[in-house]
Specification:
The complex is a heterodimer of chains A (about 160) and B (about 525).
Chain A (H helix, E strand, L loop, with lengths): L4 H23 L6 H12 L7 H8 L3 H10 L11 E6 L2 H4 L3 H12 L5 E2 L5 E6 L11 E3 L2 E3 L4 H12 L1
Parallel strand pairs in A: 1-3
Antiparallel strand pairs in A: 1-4, 2-3, 4-5
Chain B lengths: L2 E4 L4 H5 L2 H14 L4 E4 L13 E5 L2 E5 L7 H6 L11 E4 L4 H4 L17 H6 L4 H6 L4 H11 L11 H9 L7 E6 L8 H8 L1 H15 L3 E6 L4 H16 L15 E6 L9 H8 L23 E5 H13 L1 H5 L2 E2 L2 E2 L1 E8 L5 E6 L4 H8 L9 E6 L6 E3 L9 H6 L8 E6 L4 H15 L5 H20 L4 H21 L3 H5 L1 H10 L14
Parallel strand pairs in B: 1-2, 6-7, 6-9, 7-8, 12-16
Antiparallel strand pairs in B: 1-3, 3-4, 4-5, 10-11, 12-13, 14-15, 14-16
Helix pairs in contact in B: 7-8, 7-10, 9-10, 9-11, 10-13, 17-18, 17-21, 18-19
Classes of the chains: A alpha+beta (about 160), B alpha/beta (about 525).
The structure holds flavin mononucleotide and iron/sulfur cluster.
């Protein structure tokens, strides 16, 4: 596993500042704007760096601890950069009924990582997910924003190969 | 004139390649110089047949499926554009037995229309309900909804009209309509199908609710795992706003209703209505104490209607056809229809909308066709991760809220997950605790700590099930005690109902827990 945060953060710091300022300006006056803002930041940067907490807290009149509390409460938000692709494997009951436990094990072994980790080449971050609403075609895997149904180990190999290419 | 070809845009259809099929069909038609119009519809809900293509032929809509990219040239060779026969022919869609046996009220248009075409929606009875509602007073609308017998489809089955009446009765400058589209239960996808396949029906239902109770702002809280649903909703909201079905002057009535879809962030507990409201306010999704009810002090402290997608999407047909029309379906106190979702290890999984009263067995075998693996269905979990597991001996239970309560089970959001005989029910009980531990909001100790303890004890049980009898008996007792504490000491149903899957697994499948005798019922 590789922690990509430090090296890459240095390079993007400048951009990050500008970008986050714009996003804050767009969302700060919306009622309950913190979640949409965090989404916007993560959509744009791939994660919510802790370095932006002070800015958010100032703009939304919240304490840094409150911002941190919200970011960490939700499974969707990450505070560290992910790999180039995020692979989510559904762990919920419907997928279990169709062999997802074996599929998870296969994915972890193939990628040589556990959940919440990123492959050594930085290509794939593996995450669990609890239902993608594709339960009539279990087991399901989401690769970035694309859902795949009736996923076999062979299909998983193909998804991995594509992501690494 | 261009021949109309329907290829679903539904997430599950996309999950088995619908996008690639659509691209291939367009390319093949172009190569052959044929004039076609591809409409990206919702799914008809026969998921084992996706990607299911339909062609509007002289005889009606003709279906083909499951279509893969490689089948596309041969479909053209066989002249599928005129509804001709092919190895993947399914015949006229309307004549498909699976659809003919259903009573599609809430899902009347899903799979039939172009989801983001307002003209299509209007041509298929859309907005008739709102137009009727605009002629009535708020109290009259609420009465129609109450008389229809509609109960919340999000899980708790609370009468929708009664909830609305509370909000109607509140004096406030600002009221809200919040749609709960967090659909977190495994084995459910009906909300998603509505949002992706007929978003206007949800928008119409929310607008009727707003007119009824005097709300001017609405939010749809959509789970983050549903990017396509969110995109479709946003498109539909834009279309509806442009055409004055939403906005400052809804259809010239002088009434205001603005609507916004908001993205959730992957917390199961945020499907609980007060946690959802906290989340919409931009906070951590901690469950609130009740009272006050959200109907009285909801979003930003204002009176708020919180309803599930299906509850709201059912309102338009009730206002269109009348309370009695809807109430004529169903059994006992469960009136109308339930969009049932068949999932898990099931051959023919998908969406079955039926009047309340059908049995599980009919669903699993007549509709579902048994398991995919061909092995016997040993257990089903109904109502999501907090629902009980039912053994074969309970498959004749009719789908009815009260009948399910009698057997210590719930219908919930109508999801049915089937398991074949390879399932280890002790592992399922362990998972129920684990899920609760992962998703607990942390407010109450029995839920936060009890669930973690539950995982540990289940691990002990699976390790000792064939070994030390006395140790084992102690662990089983501990599971029962823990469940008891969680049942009685939790603020919301996450902690409070995790014992349903746990104890039902233990009571109905004791052999999987290393017990030979039938223990006392839950
Ligand atoms: C842990 C938990 C999760 C829930 N998840 C959902 C959900 O995803 N969707 C939903 O509509 N209701 C969910 N509910 C039920 C809601 O609290 C609430 O009863 C419902 O939104 C009310 O709408 P209805 O009356 O139309 O069903 C959940 C409840 C609990 C305790
Ligand atoms: S039961 Fe669990 S999820 Fe519900 S309020 Fe208590 S701690 Fe939160």
């Amino acid at each position: 596993m590789l922690d990509l945060q430090t090296e890459q953060d240095v390079g993007v710091n400048q951009n990050l500042e500008v970008n986050v300022d714009t996003l804050i300006a767009q969302h700060q006056h919306r009622p309950g704007g913190l979640l949409p803002l965090l989404h916007a930041i993560q959509d744009s940067l791939g994660y919510v760096p802790e370095s932006v907490y002070p800015k958010i807290s100032k703009a939304l009149s919240l304490s840094v601890a409150e911002v941190h509390g919200v970011v960490t409460f939700y499974h969707h938000f990450r505070t560290h950069r992910a790999g180039r692709h995020v692979m989510q494997i559904c762990r919920a009951e419907s997928c279990q009924a169709m062999g997802s436990v074996a599929l998870e094990a296969y994915a972890k072994k193939s990628l040589d990582i556990d959940y919440h980790q990123t492959t050594a080449d930085g290509s794939i971050t593996l995450e669990p997910v609890y239902c993608l609403g594709n339960c009539a075609l279990s087991p399901s895997v989401m690769m970035d924003d694309e859902i795949h149904g009736r996923v076999s180990p062979t299909d998983l190999d193909a998804l991995i190969a594509e992501a690494k290419a | 004139m261009a021949i109309k070809i329907y290829i679903p845009r539904d997430s599950s259809a996309l999950a088995v390649g619908a996008e690639k099929v659509a691209v291939a069909v367009a390319a093949e038609a172009k190569n052959r110089g044929l004039n076609i119009e591809i409409i990206r519809n919702g799914s008809r809900g026969l998921y084992w047949l996706e990607t299911m293509i339909e062609v509007e032929a002289d005889q009606g809509r003709v279906a083909y499926g499951p279509v893969k990219v490689k089948d596309v040239p041969s479909l053209f060779d066989a002249d599928f554009m005129n509804g001709k026969s092919h190895a993947l022919s399914l015949g006229l869609t309307e004549e498909l037995d699976w659809l003919k046996k259903q009573q599609r009220l809430t899902f009347a248009r899903v799979g039939i229309t172009d989801p983001i075409s307002l003209e299509d929606y209007l041509a298929h009875d859309g907005y008739k309900g709102l137009k009727n509602a605009l002629k009535l007073s708020g109290a009259e609308i609420v009465k129609v909804v109450t008389d229809s017998g509609l109960r919340g489809r999000g899980g708790a089955a609370f009468p929708t009209g009664i909830k609305w009446n509370t909000v109607l009765g509140c004096e406030a400058e600002q009221k809200y309509i919040v749609c709960n589209a967090d659909e977190g239960d495994s084995g459910t996808f009906s909300d998603r199908m509505i949002m992706e396949g007929d978003p206007f029906v949800l928008i119409e239902g929310m607008t009727i609710a707003a007119v009824a109770v005097g709300a001017t702002q609405g939010y749809i809280y959509v789970r983050s795992e549903y990017p396509h649903a969110l995109a479709t909703l946003n498109s539909a909201i834009e279309v509806a706003t442009k055409a004055a079905y939403l906005g400052d002057n809804v259809l010239g009535s002088g009434k205001t209703f603005h609507l916004e879809a908001r993205r959730a962030a992957g917390a199961y507990v945020c499907g609980e209505e007060t946690s959802l409201l906290e989340s919409l306010e931009g906070k951590r999704g901690l469950v609130r104490f009740k009272p006050p009810l959200p109907a009285i002090e909801g979003l930003f402290g204002k009176p708020t209607v919180v309803n599930n997608v299906i509850s709201l999407a059912t309102v338009p047909i009730v206002l269109d056809k009348g309370a009695q029309y809807y109430a004529d379906y169903g059994m006992g106190r469960s009136r109308g229809t339930l969009p049932i979702q068949l999932a898990g290890n099931i051959k023919h999984g998908g969406l079955v909308e039926l009047a309340f009263g059908a049995t599980l067995r009919e669903l699993l075998y007549d509709f579902g066709g048994g398991s995919v693996t061909g092995k016997p269905i040993r257990a089903v979990q109904v109502g999501g991760p907090l629902g009980a597991f039912l053994p074969e001996s309970q498959f004749d239970t009719p789908l009815d809220y009260e009948e399910f309560t009698k057997i210590w089970a719930v219908l919930g959001h109508g999801g049915i997950v089937a398991f074949d005989d390879s399932v280890d029910m002790a592992q399922m009980a362990r998972y129920a605790f684990e899920f609760c531990a992962i998703e607990s909001c942390g407010k109450c100790t029995p839920c936060r700590i009890g669930s973690i303890r539950g995982v540990e004890v289940m691990d002990k049980i699976t390790a000792t099930r064939n070994k030390s009898a006395s140790e084992h008996a102690k662990s089983i007792k501990l599971v029962r005690d823990l469940s008891d504490t969680m049942l009685n000491g939790s603020l919301c149903a996450l902690g409070g109902m995790t014992p349903y899957p746990v104890l039902s697994a233990l009571n109905h499948f004791p052999e999987d827990f290393g017990l030979s005798v039938e223990p006392k019922a839950g």
